[in-house]
Amino acid sequence: NAGVTQTPKFQVLKTGQSMTLQCAQDMNHNSMYWYRQDPGMGLRLIYYSASEGTTDKGEVPNGYNVSRLNKREFSLRLESAAPSQTSVYFCASSPQGRNTGELFFGEGSRLTVL
Amino acid sequence: QKEVEQNSGPLSVPEGAIASLNCTYSDRGSQSFFWYRQYSGKSPELIMSIYSNGDKEDGRFTAQLNKASQYVSLLIRDSQPSDSATYLCASTGFGNEKLTFGTGTRLTIIP
Fold first, then answer.
1. Is residue A95 scored above 90 in pLDDT?
2. Quick one: closest CA in B to A38, which residue?
3. Residues 6 or more apart whose Cβ sits within 8 Å of residue A38
4. What are phi and psi of B44, to 5 degrees?
5. Residue B46: left (phi > 0), alpha (psi -120 to 50), or beta?
6. Residues of B in contact with A56 (CB under 8 A)
7. Is A86 helix (H, G, I), strand (E, B) or coil?
8. Are strands B100-101 and B85-93 parallel, antiparallel or unpaired?
């Protein structure tokens, strides 16, 4: 049982390049999330998807797009990477309802934008 | 003002002692509260959830919630070196799909 799987684990980009972070969960969860974590800023929500076919902005959505491809997969795309997007990105999932705050996190993707 | 606030630490506690981690929140509508543990270089892991006023115990961990004072705490009894990590406090509002995290408190257990 893999839980939440993110790829890639590490990535270095040049300013202006694009890339997609992939996330898949095998727990049959309805809700999926993308967070970024920066020193001193904690975890900040970028986008989330409460269910298949829906997405919504979080606290820091600018510069990102997401796709909820199906119930299992939720991808995060950087169209034109900027140094301010250097961060560790975490995908998470949760069952819907009372357990909304009980998130299961992937291992993280460390992104550096030069 | 951040919605969920924690002292960033570091908090140093001798092995075997009680570690006390505190968190305050600004949204009176917050309904659910969570403590996550994050080891260095790893992802956060849920260790406690609490939904009503009072104490909730799970092994060496006790979560305490006081909605009138808008604070949540986590007590770790008989602290072990393996408890050294950053502890993240988080809350959700009523009907809110989104979890808001504090910046975390770094805890070091001294052998």
1. no
2. B103
3. A44, A87, A88
4. -65, 150
5. beta
6. 97
7. coil
8. antiparallel
Query: How far, CA to CA in Å, does B36 sit from each of A17, A19, A99, B76?
Result: 34, 29, 14, 13
d(CA A4, CA A24): 6
Asked if residues A114 and A61 have their Cβ atoms less than 8 Å apart, the reply is no
- What are the residues of chain B with a beta carbon less than 8 Å away from any beta carbon of chain A? 8, 32-34, 36, 42-46, 49, 51, 88, 90-92, 96-104
Q: Which one has a higher pLDDT value, B32 or B57? A: B57
CA B69 – CA A17 distance, rounded (Å): 48
pLDDT bin (cut points 50, 70, 90) of residue B66 is very high
